[in-house]
């Protein structure tokens, strides 16, 4: 009997031909400090035990995401180790540029965005790799030079660029570009930051159309929307746009549109959880109980952890002010996430039956840790 459940398909499979599911979410009672601290303790144990392998750069990047720029392995900062060990040079039109290979970071500019700039490391940070001295400014220059997207012809109706990959570049470029700024890449094309942000917002809105309609009708989702085709359910894209909003790369009208997207993320906390429950209830008779259990927990850890990271980041920076009803939903989502993390437990990754599930559990624990660290729980 197979034991691996296709992860990226779980929502699509769950939505076929099924109506709304009434999910039993734990009764709302604001999580106390002791439970919050216990949750953080479990997550920190997972991160320090499983995300520190020197030959797993993707996991190390996530550990920095969770624990901050000073996170170290042995006596060396993890950021310095990753730069020294894994950065490479690539030639474009006769000039070499420093970058993190996509095979290590998963998505273009994810290392620069999440483990470097968003963790508080600036362009002057110096390191040595390939027997030469560099700074983060060199990594930024490489990212901008290698990024190629014709911002003059952008349209969600004719996408020729992977909008999913844009999420991390939005973060990296939001930190390293002046408002209304632009640059010329290694191919001689002008890249306009404002156009990139607008393209990302259009892509997000387009991918969320069905969800927005269900939310406005006061319903949970009857099935998945196209946003679930994006990394981590599209939460990275909205985080990238939130960063653009925070750093002044969106206009007032776009800021108003972002409010709707924050509403959708808040609504999805409950709706996505229902879709997960529905999907794994369908699979309960097809796979061993323990396999279904750990996949169910992993899916909820991903969606709730990333969703609350987005929401708590937006609240922390004053980008999103929830209504009283939304506050209740966010509180319930925190409680459900705490339940999930307690069920996974500090040794949860050991129960993963394949390497991919193991990496998801650890990486998603890192995002959940960052989310609950920013939580506002009265």
Structure report:
With 378 residues, the chain is mostly helical. The protein has one domain. The chain is built from 15 helices and 8 strands. The strands form 4 sheets. It has a two-stranded antiparallel ribbon with strand order 1-2. Strand 3 and strand 4 form a beta hairpin. Helix 2 runs antiparallel to helix 15 and helix 8 runs parallel beside helix 11. About 8% of the residues have low confidence.
Separate helix tally: 15
Taken in chain order, the helices and strands follow as: HHHEEHEEHHEEHHEEHHHHHHH
Q: Indicate the proportion of strand residues.
A: 5-15%
Rounded Rg: 20 Å
Query: So what's the overall shape?
Result: globular
Instruction: Please report the total strand number as a whole number.
Output: 8
Mean pLDDT figure: 88
Q: Specify the helix fraction band.
A: 55-70%
Spatial strand arrangement across the major sheet: 1-2
Distance between termini? 47 Å
The major pleated sheet works out as: 2 strands, antiparallel
